[in-house]
Write a structure and sequence with these properties.
Elements (H helix, E strand, L loop, with lengths): L4 H4 L13 H18 L3 H8 L8 H13 L3 E2 L2 E2 L1 H12 L1 H11 L7 H14 L5
Antiparallel strand pairs: 1-2
Helix pairs in contact: 2-4, 4-7, 5-6
């Protein structure tokens, strides 16, 4: 189960789709759609990012990641909210696993809040092996 769902709880941020209710999945999907529209990216760009394709460094894609993470409460003002991440993802992926990824990723900083959120998502995604 991948931290992709830090995105799908991070783009339909359903960190383990099996761990979310249908209502939570629908809510995450709506948030992702709203962020696609707000940031002006294509559905394909959102799907690529959700799938771990980090080749597109379009600033709009980075701001999409920020929008989604902010809407889910995992990030605020360019800062990761470790307690919120642990509370939302711990029950799905296991607290120890989440804490291990947090130790690797939560100090990540980018040039601005969009870049930071994008890099955080990338770090969480790339360190999903424990999930």
């Amino acid at each position: 189960m991948k931290v992709f769902f830090v995105f799908a709880a991070l783009a339909a941020l359903s960190l383990a789709s099996a761990g979310l209710t249908d209502s939570q999945k629908a809510e995450a999907k709506q948030r992702a759609k709203a962020c696609v529209k707000q940031e002006g990216i294509t559905k394909e760009q959102a799907i690529a990012l959700r799938s771990g394709n980090f080749a597109d460094s379009d600033p709009k894609v980075k701001c999409f990641a920020n929008c989604f993470l902010e809407q889910t409460g995992l990030v605020a003002n360019g800062q990761i909210k470790p307690d919120v991440v642990l509370a939302k993802l711990g029950p799905i992926a296991g607290e120890a696993n989440v804490k291990e990824v947090q130790a690797k990723c939560d100090s990540t900083k980018g040039a601005d809040k969009c870049d930071t959120s994008y890099l955080l998502y990338k770090c969480y995604y790339e360190n999903h092996a424990q999930f």
